[in-house]
Design a protein that fits this description.
The structure holds two protein chains of two kinds.
Chain A (H helix, E strand, L loop, with lengths): L2 E12 L3 E13 L4 E5 L6 H9 L6 E6 L2 E2 L7 E4 L11 H6 L8 H14 L15 H14 L4 E5 L7 H18 L2 E6 L2 H7 L2 E6 L4 E7 L11 H31 L1
Parallel strand pairs in A: 3-8, 3-9, 6-7, 7-8
Antiparallel strand pairs in A: 1-2, 1-4, 4-5, 9-10
Helix pairs in contact in A: 3-4, 6-7
Chain B lengths: L1 H23 L10 H13 L2 H33 L1 H15 L6 H9 L3 H25 L3 H8 L5 H37 L6 H10 L3 H33 L6
Helix pairs in contact in B: 2-10, 3-4, 3-6, 3-8, 3-9, 4-6, 5-6, 6-8, 8-9, 8-10, 9-10
Classes of the chains: A alpha/beta, B mainly alpha.
The structure holds adenosine-5'-triphosphate and magnesium ion.
Main location (chain B): membrane
Pfam family, one (chain B): BPD_transp_1
InterPro entries (chain B): MetI-like, MetI-like_sf
């Protein structure tokens, strides 16, 4: 299997309780070229899981394997797009995209590659701009181009469109679909939005919380582009919504109880 | 344009009041000279080259001292910023040293180096180094962790992470440090020169004091103030603002 999670668990050292378990027993097998979304209530560990695949957080139980090799540090075979702005403000757009490849090839080659990916995200016109001159949506597109420039096998995206308005988000969805079909990357996509997950993915993994775990795993075989009023889409949305509602209510109840006691 | 006008008007009024006090002859001339006498003194000082020589000497001390203090301050700051050991051991003393007014170092410098230019430069270096070190230290501590995480996913680590991310990300605080180092060095320079055997603006000031030349004293104070404001506004504030803008730290 291309990307494998075997009994993966994560503990953070906690000063008060010794150790805090985010999730445990995550088992997933992801195929090459698959577009997989991970949905789940806030705090269930989606970002943590993605960071573990990126190699930024260590795996405390089990292991994650990419093409049979255990992941234990960051590597150029995995690119990541973060929810927080992560462009380097001292570099312009093009220099940002060239950042990961500058040391790996000649300048001319790196420039050609940067131009190619900037064209893919429709930002060629802005290649000499600095980050403070870009909108949030443009910044995320640069971040996508930057991650792609490295030519990773897996593209990890942590709520990349979470901070954008509805309209921009729809445009970027279409753009991302095109990029995915063109580059055939394997994409692991974390989101809060059920619609977004169902619109984009081959497969939706739903996580629950307290304790964090996988509670459902849907294959989505509908033809693309998927319209929101497609009855099958609506049915799926409803199913996932019901599942998530239980989890979210669990969190809310716990927090409210806690408040009452405090 | 309107602001410039307001400022001009203000200075005209101040000089007017000053001239009024002078004309009222409330105080003897050697305590309150006329603003025009001060102007003449300044003018002839520039014409006969005395003031220019003093100014040149002061700038020489400043440039040498400030350069050295930026270099040593940066080295110290990077060391404390990168090494937790060093920071825990010496960080607190840096703050203590920074809080010592620079004039306190003058006797020490004079005992070490005599009344010459070396003592002055020493005081200038001490004046700027600690504030520079403190700023570089916080620059390193304040590199956004998110940028380091992003760089790590792009195969950047170790020394490469330092010079491709931490160094450029530190530049805004670094610039702030340079501006503060200049301000502290400039004050230290005057204190050092005042007690030295010259040459320099501070020395000219103490010379004017010895001969009870109030017109020269006021003239030199004006020069010192003007230079301070001009260098800060035209050089350091501008540089800092440009950097902050580019780094996205300025509210548009
Ligand atoms: N470095 C850390 N140290 C300790 N606890 C952490 C750390 N990082 C995350 N956690 C905890 O792990 C849990 C999962 O966090 P994570 O950010 O992965 O959640 P998430 O599912 O991405 O949430 P959201 O949807 O709000 O982004 C949270 O309870 C969080 O407090
Ligand atoms: Mg998250």
């Amino acid at each position: 299997m291309f990307l494998e999670f075997n009994e993966v668990g994560k503990n953070f050292a906690d000063e008060q309780h010794g150790s805090f378990e985010v999730f445990s027993d995550i088992n997933l097998s992801i195929e090459e070229n698959q577009f997989v979304s991970i949905l789940g209530p806030s705090g269930c560990g989606k970002s943590t899981l993605l960071s573990m695949v990126a190699g930024l957080e260590d795996v405390t139980q089990g292991d994650i394997q990419l093409e049979g090799n255990e992941i234990n540090s960051p590597g150029p075979d995995r690119g990541m797009v973060f929810q927080e702005p992560s462009l380097f403000p001292w570099l312009n757009v093009k220099e940002n995209v060239m950042f990961p490849i500058k040391k790996k090839m000649s300048k001319a080659e790196a420039e050609k590659r940067a131009d190619h990916f900037l064209q893919m995200v429709h930002l060629s016109r802005f290649k000499n701009h600095y980050t403070y001159e870009l909108s949030g949506g443009m910044q995320q597109r640069v971040a996508i181009a930057r991650a792609l420039a490295m030519d990773p096998k897996v593209l990890l995206m942590d709520e990349p469109f979470g901070a954008l308005d509805e309209q921009t988000r729809h445009i970027l969805h279409d753009e991302l679909m095109k990029i995915w079909q063109e580059t055939r990357k394997t994409i692991l996509f974390v989101t809060h939005s059920i619609q977004e997950a169902i619109k984009l993915s081959d497969r939706v993994v739903v996580m629950g919380t307290r304790p964090g775990r996988v509670i459902a795993d849907f294959d989505i075989d509908l033809p693309r582009p998927r319209k929101r009023d497609n009855p099958e889409v609506i049915k799926l949305e409803k199913t996932v919504m019901d599942l998530l509602e239980v989890e979210i209510n669990k969190v809310l109840k716990e927090e409210l109880n806690h408040e009452d006691r405090a | 344009m309107k602001i410039a006008l307001k400022r001009l008007l203000f200075i005209v009024v101040v000089i007017g009041i000053w001239q009024g006090i002078y004309l009222a002859q409330l105080y003897p001339d050697y305590i309150v000279p006329s603003p025009f006498t001060v102007g003449e003194t300044l003018f002839s000082g520039f014409v006969d080259g005395e003031l220019l020589k003093a100014l040149g000497a002061s700038f020489k001390h400043l440039i040498i001292g400030l350069t050295l203090s930026i270099l040593t301050g940066t080295l110290l700051g990077v060391l404390l910023g990168k090494s937790r050991q060093a920071d825990e051991t010496a960080g607190m003393y840096l703050i203590a040293l920074q809080s010592i007014p620079s004039i306190v170092w003058v006797p020490l410098a004079i005992l070490l180096f005599g009344f010459g230019e070396l003592a002055v430069i020493f005081v200038v270096v001490i004046g700027g180094t600690f504030v520079m070190a403190l700023n570089v230290r916080s620059a390193i501590h304040n590199v956004p962790p998110q940028l380091k995480r992003a760089a790590r996913t792009m195969d950047t680590k170790g020394f490469e992470l330092f010079y491709r991310i931490e160094v450029p990300a530190s530049i805004p605080y670094f610039m702030q440090g340079v501006r503060l180092a200049w301000a502290f060095s400039w004050r230290a320079l005057m204190a050092g020169e005042f007690l030295s055997n010259g040459p320099g603006l501070g020395y000219s000031l103490s010379f004017a004091q010895d001969y009870a030349r109030m017109d020269q004293v006021i003239g030199i104070i004006i020069i010192i103030g003007v230079i301070g404001a001009v260098v800060d506004q035209l050089v350091f504030s501008k540089l800092e603002k440009n950097v902050m803008k580019r780094w996205g730290l300025l509210n548009k």
